Every structure is written in structure tokens, then in C-alpha cells.
Amino acid sequence: MSSLEDIRENRLKKLELLKSKGINPYPVNSKKDFCLEELISDFIKLSKRKTAISVVGRIMSLRPQGGLVFLNFNDGTACFQGLIKKDEMKNELINLFNETVDIGDFIQFDGFLFKTKRGEKTLLIKNWKMLSKSLKPLPEKWHGLQDVEERFRKRYLDTLMSEEVKKRFITRSRFISELRNYLDKKNFLEVETPILQSLAGGATAQPFITHHKALDINLYLRVAPELHLKELLIGNFPKVYEIGRLFRNEGIDVTHNPEFTTIEVYEAYADASKHMDFLEKLLKTVIKKVINKTDFEYNGNKISFAGKFKRVSFLSLIKQHSLISDPEKVTREELSLTAQRLGIKVDETDSRTKIMDNIYKKTCLPKLIQPTFIVDYPAEFSPLAKRKENNPEMIDRYQLIVAGMEVINAFSELNDPIDQHHRFLEQEKIREGGDEEAHPHDQEYIEAMEYGMPPAGGIGMSIDRFVMLLTDARNIKEVILFPTLRPKK
Q1: Which residues are known binding-site members for Mg(2+)?
Q2: Which distant-in-sequence residues (6+ apart) come within 8 Å of 16 by Cβ?
Q3: Where, in this chain's numbering, is Mg(2+) 1 bound (predicted)?
Q4: What is the span of the domain harbouring residue 83?
Q5: Pairing of strands 79-85, 121-132
Q6: What residues are designated binding site?
């Protein structure tokens, strides 16, 4: 029997001891007068109370010292010190505590606040009650694990044992809340669209497929909410947004997880240029509220959201960093040779656009550290973006790049149903050529567009990648509470 099994067996005996004395180790009720954060902030006032207070928490350490037992306990808001002292508690309660309580147990403590000789804020415990008996020990050196994925598999231990990890997810929650607050104040309406869809549209990506038994049809987990949100523009909702999960059946790496969180924002009578200005204000405001500044460190670089974001065209970056002299006219074969020289894998089914995009990601993205808008993409890069009026071969699209990561993809929305129909047909040809990520032809969306769609600007933002930036996390798994992992055998 391993030592962990020995510990569990020992704790099971303690569980039975509690039960033998008529004590429920997992009672329904508990009493909590204050959270520990309040205990610390209002200590002077509360320490003057002449009646006992009740607090709760998980025991994180036990330090017996003769007739004293010092302990630290945590209720999720803060950690606090408790003291069990002979003559201040009934002997049978002290004995039962020593016989049955372990690190990891949840306990209710009743007592009075005071300061030790060292000035430490402490609860003098008069009574205690078991709230939940733990059967497994907390890890001693959790963050020294060589198998980092074990942290992701057991995120409950990760957030319990590391305040830094827990704070990362608090930052994530605050970031989402502040985004929501900003948009709500600008009169955007938060909506919900289907996750199960009959066509996986709104982005060029390979979907997950599932089957609905009652309808006897295949459905797809959404790759984007875009088309439904734009149907709401048609339906007389001028400003809408959705925060939610997307699902793409793609590879996993440091910036990709098969399920991830985005916010998509659509505004009638806006366009890419207006939205770039809008985004600068939004991001500066939200980041300042979340981290109290607009500058932060990421991967050894100081990132600043304080100034005006630089704007540079996609093709000029390709020319500058990929040594392709004329990217507008370069052939698929020439791109394929360039990609192979750069060590980029090219499949037979890869389109000219996909190869160029992979070259851009390899040669250009890593050089873009400060917030930069990449503008003016060739038309084939997005079947849903409006063409530029002065050059129909280009689309009015932009991406925001920070620290070599794409964090926002956005454009002036195509609202010409005839052009949209032809773009979908082009995507169908690409799909028939073997590219499973090409956009399907969505006839229902075309029909909705034919009723009239207002000119509009749309924004898609990666919540996960922004949280990576704000918390200096180098792997997307670090900012997703329960990332996708291969099951253990």
C-alpha cells in the first residue's frame, strides 16, 4: 500500500471516529458571520465585540506547540490564523480536534479576535465544528510538478495551492465584466445565439460534428456566432454582442484550444475605420480598470496600450519580412516554394491564401510586439468582409496584433447578398478541392441578407489571448480553467 493510500485509510478511520461520536462529518448547515477578508479589514472594530463570532474555512496548516495549536485557514477570500489553547476550550473538544482534524478539512470556528505578542491577527477558538472531512492530503510541492498538465487536469488543486493562478482567473473574470460594462454603457445589447447549428458558418474552420437523435440530423458546434448576430442587425437590433464559447476541430498549441471564448460585437452604420478608433478607447479603458494601468510586461517585453496604435498593411508586411516582392501577383507554386524554404508544411489542399497566411504567421507576426492594426487584406482572405471601394481586390479588414498574437479579427461587414452568394460559391470550390476549413454556402443567411442588411462593422476578440497578455501567461491552457487534454489511460 502506497503512502497516499495509507493516509487515506487513516483519514477514513478519523471519519468513522467522528461518526461514532454522533458527529456528521458533512453537515447541511454552517454558520458564518464574516468572511475572512472582512475579518482582516474590520479587525479593530470586530476585536472589540464581547460576543463570539463564527467563521469558516479550509485548514491550510497545523502547528502544535505544547498545549497550543496554531493553524491557518482559508475561506477563499483570505487566509487567517487561529489558536486553540488549553483552558480556553473543553478538553474533549481539543482531544477530538487533535484526533480527527487534518490539513484540508473544512471547519467552522467560533471564538474571539485578538493580537498575539508578535502582533498577528488571530482568532482564539472556543468551539469548532467539522464541515467537510477531506480524505486526501493537499500536495506539498504542487508547483514543482514536472508533469505540468497535471496542474491543468486538477485545476482545483492548482487554484488552491497557488494564489498567482487564482488571481489569473480573477483577472479573466474582471476583464470580461469590464468589457460587458463598457458595451452596455454604449447601448450594445447582449444576446445569445445557438451553439448547435445546422451549418458551421461565420469563420473558415473545421467544426465538431454531433448527431441529434429526435431530429435525426447532424449538427455542428459553432465555429463562430457571426451569421446569427448579423441576422439580428437585419432584424432591427442596431448594436449587439455575444460573449461565449466557440469550438474548432483544430490542432492544440500555446495559442489554440479546441474550445475557447470570444466576444463578437456588431454595430449597424459603423465600419472598420470607425471601429479601430472605438477599439482603442475600449481597450485602454478596460485594461486600465482591470490592472490599474495601460502598460504591462509580457514575455520580457513592455507592452503599452497608452498611445495611438500603429496601422500597417498586410501586403507591406509580407514584402518587408517574407522577401516576396509582389505578393498581390505571386502564384500558389511560388508561395509554396517560399513556405517550404521557411520550414512551413504545405498540403496539396492548401489554397494560395492559406499558404500566404502561414508565411505571414511565421515571418511577420513574431516581429509585431506593440499593439498594431494590420489592415487591407486580399479579398480571398475573408468571404464575409466588404470589398474596399477604391480597390475591389482588397477587403476592408483589420486584425489587432499584440506581442506576436492575433487578438482581434474584424472588418466592415459584407451586406451585398449577390456578392456574398458568389463568395460562398468560391468557398465551395475550395472545399471541393479538399480544404475542410472553407466556409459552407449558407442559403438561409443569403435569404436574410436579401431582405436588406444595414452597413455594419463587426469585431471578434479572443478573450483567452487577451488574458494571456494581461497575466503574462505563455500558454493558453494557463488562462482556461479546464483546457482540452487527452484523457489519462
Answers
A1: 406
A2: none
A3: 406
A4: 3-132
A5: parallel
A6: 406
